[in-house]
Amino acid sequence: MEHERFERLTLRLRAGFESQAGALDAELTAYGQLRAVCEATDHEACLATVHVELATLAGNQGRVQAGLDHARAAQRYAAQAGVERSQRKAMAVLADVHLTAGDLPPCQALAEQLLAASRKALDPYQERYALMLLGAVAMRRGDATTARARFAEVYELGRRTGETALRALARHFEGRAVLDAVRDAATAVGLFDQAAALYRAVNDRNGEANALRG
Predict the structure, then answer these.
(1) How distant, in Å, are the alpha carbons of 96, 149, 153, 165, 168 from that of 188?
(2) pTM for the full model?
(3) For 128-144, what is each residue's pLDDT tens digit?
C-alpha cells in the first residue's frame, strides 16, 4: 500500500496523474467493505489504515473534500490507537490531498512536520515522501533552488538506502525544477541524462523515456 501511494504521488508529479476510473472504483468498493469490518470490530489502527487509503483514492479522483475528511479521520484513529507510524502515514496523505487541491501553505506545514517526525523515527519511507512533497510545493511556487535542494536530499536518501530507482526519480525532478522554473536548459539536460542512465540501470523504460523527453 505504501509503495503504491508513493508511486501515485510521483506519477502525478511526473506527468499529471491520469486516473483509471474503473480500477479506482473497484479499490474504493474494496476499502469500503474493509472499513465496515474495522468498524464492526472497533479496530482503531485498522480504521486509520483504511481512511489513509480512502483519502488517497479520493484525492486521485479529484474529490478533495472527501480526501481531507478521510485523512483527518485517519489522523484521529491513529492518535487514538497510539500508533506513531500510522500517524505519520495520515499526515502524509493529508499533505498530499492539500497539494492536489493546490493548498500549498497547509501542505508545506504538514510536510515539514512529517519530515521532522520521520527523521526522528528513522523512517526513510515517509522521509522521502515529505521531501517529495516539499519539492513539489517549491516547484509550484517557481522556487527552483529550494526544489532542487529537496530533490537532492531525496537523491542522497536513495544513495544511502541503495535505491537506484529513487535516485533516478530525484534527478528527474531536479531537471524538471530547473527547466520549468528558470529555463536553464543546459543544466536540465545534464540532470535528465543522469536520470535516464539511472532509469536504464533498473530497466525502467517509461522513466527513461520521460527523462529523455525532458
Answers:
(1) 26, 14, 17, 19, 14
(2) 0.79
(3) 999 999 999 998 998 98
